[in-house]
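Thread: "does anyone have the structure for this chain?"

Original post by V.I.:
We have the sequence but no experimental structure in hand. Need at least a predicted one for the grant figures.
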Amino acid sequence: MRKILQVKQVNDYCHYLGCKAQHPLICIIDYATVSPLRHSLNRYSVYGIFLRDDATVDLTYGCGAYAYQSNSLLCVAPGQLGGKEDNGERVIINGWALLFHPDLLAGTPLASSMDDYPFFYYSERDALCLLPAEHDLLVDLFQQLRAELTTPADAQT
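Reply from O.Q.:
Generated one for you, tokens below.
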């Protein structure tokens, strides 16, 4: 029987990787800070955007393989299965992950239009390959978001 990590909340994935929870609805993970790590086959109840700076791991997406290469963006949506089953091997992964709960979008126009983004759904099994400038911009955004999430709340005035 396959072992599947249930990622019901963003911090379920953080806990598995051994990183500190940042917020109940959103997290940013720099894989360089948690590698080496064990694989996990995940059933997502959250959205995930994964920036992979390497392409050394064969990943599953739904019932098939995920086609990606270095500097690729991989996306998942609630209800999807992805990753690689834990075989006990520890691997070094380079890149970033942004996970966010659908509740983060509640009450916003984006909440009702997520179906308009096909890269979150099984019809797209190919990752989005990024140009170097796009990659650098995305890493910068991830770093800024992580800084915001890990900085103590602003003092009340």
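V.I.: this helps a lot. The helical segments are 10-17, 132-150.
O.Q.: and The chain has one domain: 5-149.
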